[in-house]
């Protein structure tokens, strides 16, 4: 039997190449403020927000306003990736922020069109994906594709920089309020993504001690010795970057061992049979069963490509791994483990994962209906049960669509469902108005 071992060179894909721009039609720049009335407001222009805006364009809903804190498609997503110097996505070529059921230029086709810009390693990934084997996408290719997708679906003409502070939900309208704007919308789609998971309160008193930071915060000059806490892909990138700069690293794992795997969830959850374990034809699975599935599937893991790098660093003493250790306390330059062990370093970086943003703070708590950290969504429409004109796409839909909803491919599934519901409602409301 032939065993495929991914090569670490895949982690060195170049960044910020000069990709040809799609010759989009010349349109006037949007006004400074969003319009006061719209059919749909999308909150967030990350991969999920881009997918929703694109889908609504295809189903004939042109009156769309996208509001994003950075004012650019996928900007925050890419900024986080670049902070880690991450060069490839975990997602394969068939997972991209396109639209289910419509013949757009898909991500693999886009990469093949720009074959001359790809490295030999990247070209090999394309060939593997065409043959049905596992392959992953360079960040540079993904960014260029998102820019292309945004342009051909006229997303920039519908996108405004702004911070949404509150949603006031009425019977037939939702008021989307920001610091200096208000938009009245028939429907709102929340594409809020995920935020970092903070450390447990008992690790310290008050805020993080000096010398302790999180993975998404700016880092200073490389230290002589760094402690990285976390078991996932973010931790692996932090470790690799530190090792490349000559830093000695202590890696603290609360699990007994590292977990190397292709995807962060079982591949079956990207298919209909996997999603049916959450919202099957006979009705949704019991809540406790869904919680157990999420806990089992969303475990921290690292791409296979890191394995030879990390094992070599541990063998030659540049990396020390503390496996299966609970953390009792964290202080300036010191992590106190169980059994009395103390690990010291010049910098401590925490990579504890992320938690989904579910609309808390934008909607009243009673409308979010949060349970175990998840919103109360209708399994058929992905609308909030107590606010049926407000939908959730992306990570917030995980208890309906399963763990893959937090991945780019899951965004496509959520998007198809939400866009279909909005288009049908628009048709009904238009017919009612004519009658």
Automatic annotation (TrEMBL):
Superkingdom per UniProt: Bacteria
Pfam families linked: Pyr_redox_2
FAD/NAD(P)-binding domain mapped to chain residues: 39-256
GO MF: oxidoreductase activity
Protein name, UniProt field: FAD/NAD(P)-binding domain-containing protein
Species for this entry: Actinophytocola xinjiangensis
